[in-house]
């Protein structure tokens, strides 16, 4: 039975399907010793697939939850030699990668896996996964600001989807706000508050779907339980538009 090359790569834990397609187009992949750049290429179990000269092998899927600290890059490697989230999971032997990303100066819940299909489901725009952030923003958030957060704000030329927003605490010169969104636009939370005139001073992702950071400190991680993995898979399918 033959399958598309990018799907085989995703199942092997090399990268998500979309990232695998990029690797193929850029010439990083060989099939039976020959570079392949065609996305329609199909392979069978007897074909030898290499990525950057390293043969791929089908790995058992693994799933981890990390409490990412601030000052860590959400990447597998970094050309500036900064600490990455993979460095924090140094005892994990499988080749894993982060699901989505958190900014360098943002802390909080991050998933890592070698399951390319699940990564694709959780990060693709057509799926909706609630993500709750706690932001410390400059200035005092008004009732009008809260209404705009809940109904949508125009950033990058289009309006954000409706969100859940709650003021946790008002300080003298700042406000602590809980914001739940299901989109995954680049720097979305920061841009939403900036559009209101309240730049983010500190940001943390507290939950991802039903998962949270209970019992973890920054830098801690744990393996997801089987029922959590199944719930994630079910959630990503149920939320499909």
Automatic annotation (TrEMBL):
Gene Ontology terms: biological process: enzyme-directed rRNA pseudouridine synthesis
Name of the gene: rluB
Lyase as UniProt keyword: yes
Keywords: Isomerase, Lyase, RNA-binding
Family: Belongs to the pseudouridine synthase RsuA family.
EC number of the protein: 5.4.99.-
InterPro entries referenced in this protein's UniProt entry, alphabetically: PsdUridine_s_RsuA/RluB/E/F_cat, PsdUridine_synth_cat_dom_sf, PsdUridine_synth_RsuA/RluA, PsdUridine_synth_RsuA/RluB/E/F, PsdUridine_synth_RsuA/RluB_CS, RsuA_PseudoU_synthase, S4_RNA-bd, S4_RNA-bd_sf
UniProt cross-references to SMART domains, sorted A to Z: S4 (SM00363)
Single GO cellular component term: cytosol
Pfam families: PseudoU_synth_2, S4
Organism: Lentilactobacillus hilgardii (strain ATCC 8290 / DSM 20176 / CCUG 30140 / JCM 1155 / KCTC 3500 / NBRC 15886 / NCIMB 8040 / NRRL B-1843 / 9)
Limits of the RNA-binding S4 domain: 3-66
A GO molecular-function descriptor: rRNA pseudouridine synthase activity
Protein name according to UniProt: Pseudouridine synthase
């Amino acid at each position: 039975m033959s399958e598309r090359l990018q799907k085989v790569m995703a199942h092997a834990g090399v990268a998500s399907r979309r990232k695998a397609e990029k690797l193929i187009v850029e010439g990083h992949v060989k099939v039976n010793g020959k570079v392949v750049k065609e996305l329609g290429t199909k392979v069978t179990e007897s074909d030898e697939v290499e990525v950057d000269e390293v043969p791929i092998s089908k790995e058992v899927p693994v799933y981890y939850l990390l409490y990412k600290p601030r000052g860590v890059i959400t990447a597998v490697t970094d050309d500036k030699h900064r600490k990455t989230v993979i460095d924090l999971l140094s005892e994990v032997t499988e080749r894993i990668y982060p699901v989505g990303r958190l900014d360098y100066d943002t802390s909080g819940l991050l998933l890592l896996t070698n399951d390319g299909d699940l990564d694709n489901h959780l990060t693709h725009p057509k799926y909706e996964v609630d993500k709750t952030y706690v932001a410390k923003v400059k200035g005092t958030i008004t009732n009008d600001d809260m209404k705009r957060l809940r109904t949508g704000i125009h950033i990058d030329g289009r309006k954000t989807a409706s969100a859940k927003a709650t003021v946790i605490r008002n300080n003298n010169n700042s406000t602590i706000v809980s914001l739940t969104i299901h989109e995954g636009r680049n720097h979305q939370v920061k841009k939403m508050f900036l559009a209101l005139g309240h730049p983010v001073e500190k940001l943390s992702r507290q939950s991802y779907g039903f998962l949270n950071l209970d019992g973890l400190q920054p830098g801690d991680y744990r393996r997801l339980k089987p029922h959590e993995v199944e719930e994630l898979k079910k959630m990503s399918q149920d939320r499909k538009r």
